[in-house]
Write a structure and sequence with these properties.
With about 350 residues, the protein is of the alpha+beta class. The chain has 2 domains: about 160 residues, Aminopeptidase, CATH 3.40.630.30; about 140 residues, 3-Layer(aba) Sandwich (Aminopeptidase). Helices cover about 35% and strands about 25% of the residues. It contains 11 helices and 11 strands. Strands 1-2-3-4-11-5-10-9-8-7-6 form an 11-stranded mixed sheet, sandwiched between helices. The chain is globular. The relative contact order is 0.18.
């Protein structure tokens, strides 16, 4: 018999929060969106989050848990997919766990690279950061301030955040994404601290803040600003949040993933070239930060590879299309608890 897939319950979300306390993977907070199912190990000390789209069973990221638990869960998820006659897919996995995917017969494809800033080395001193320093000082002289609102106080500002989010979507002519990218939902946002930029008590920009349970990593998901916000407001928010994380001894700030580019100039096999071109063509769906290359130029991050692991080479175009469909669903992908 096929294993039963149940809608996530409040007790599941509690288990997820417990697992995340021991995880340094900030993106694992996407488990709280409510658009994914969970496969836990027997001891409930780790999980895989996933969603099916036609025949593709797509897990987001590496399993969450300690090293042995992650390996065990890759095996369990492969068997789970086989029992449903589905394609086994892991989307956005890290290089550290690649042997686990090879061990269960999955093929690996490089998706892109994640931009990471090491906070112990981050500083606004030096000629290269002169323009950022000037922009930050200009906003502060105009009366703009930065703060991180703690989780317990976030419900008070949710109506204002909703207005800003709606203005941002209107300005960008953008629809909400989902699955591997957060969407605005009060239930989701109130689970995190929120970084805000204010002037005279009015919020002009915000980002929900992901904090790794081990204090290794800090990142953001939604980054939105209002229609009356000044130029450079998101740069200012980023800079201040990095300094905030540095003061609190976080090791790294994760800027998210950028697509592969320039594949035609690399000594890669034809299949890799076709794969890369396919992945790049879905860039609108797969990648969150519009200005990631701009931040690369400004902050000089370290780039870390991210991969797709899949058990069916010939089905790769279909798998990529299914992932893009999942992401484009946005809030329509929410799983009903009924």
């Amino acid at each position: 018999a096929k294993p039963v897939i149940a809608a996530p319950s409040e007790s599941d979300f509690y288990l997820v929060s417990q697992c995340l306390q021991a995880s340094d993977r900030t993106a694992a907070n996407l488990a709280f969106l409510g658009d994914k199912y969970f496969l836990f190990n027997e001891e409930r000390t780790g999980f895989v989050m996933f969603r099916d789209m036609q025949r593709s069973w797509i897990a987001l990221g590496d399993p969450v848990g300690v090293t042995d638990v992650r390996r065990e869960l890759v095996w369990a998820y492969r068997q789970f997919c086989d029992s449903h006659d589905g394609l086994c897919v892991f989307y956005q996995v890290s290089k550290n766990d690649l042997p686990n995917y090879i061990e269960v017969g999955l093929h690996l494809y490089k998706l892109g690279e994640e931009a990471v800033i090491w906070l112990d080395k981050f500083s606004l001193k030096g000629v290269e950061f002169k323009s950022l320093r000037s922009a930050a000082r200009k906003l502060e002289k105009e009366g703009f301030n930065f703060e991180v609102v703690p989780i317990l106080s976030v419900p008070e500002i949710l109506p204002e955040l909703q207005v800003i989010s709606d203005q941002w979507k209107e300005t960008k002519a953008s629809k909400e994404k989902g699955f591997s990218v957060g969407f605005f939902s009060c239930d989701y946002i109130k689970r995190f601290p929120v970084a805000i930029v204010t002037k005279e008590g009015k919020i002009h920009a915000f980002a929900n803040v992901w904090l790794g349970g081990t204090k290794k990593e800090i990142s953001v998901d939604l980054m939105r600003y209002g229609k009356d916000s000044p130029n450079g407001v998101m740069d200012y928010l980023f800079i201040q949040l990095m300094l905030w994380g540095k003061e609190r001894r976080y090791e790294r700030f994760n800027l998210g993933m950028a697509p592969l580019s320039g594949l035609e100039n690399r000594p890669l096999a034809p299949l890799w070239n076709r794969t890369g071109a396919l992945i790049y063509s879905y860039g609108e769906s797969f990648y969150n930060f519009d200005g990631l290359y701009k931040y690369k130029d400004k902050f000089s991050p370290t780039w870390e590879p991210k991969y797709l692991a899949c058990n069916a080479r010939l089905m790769l175009p279909k798998v990529l299309a299914d992932i893009a469909s999942l992401i484009r669903r946005g809030p329509n992908g929410l799983i009903s608890s009924s």
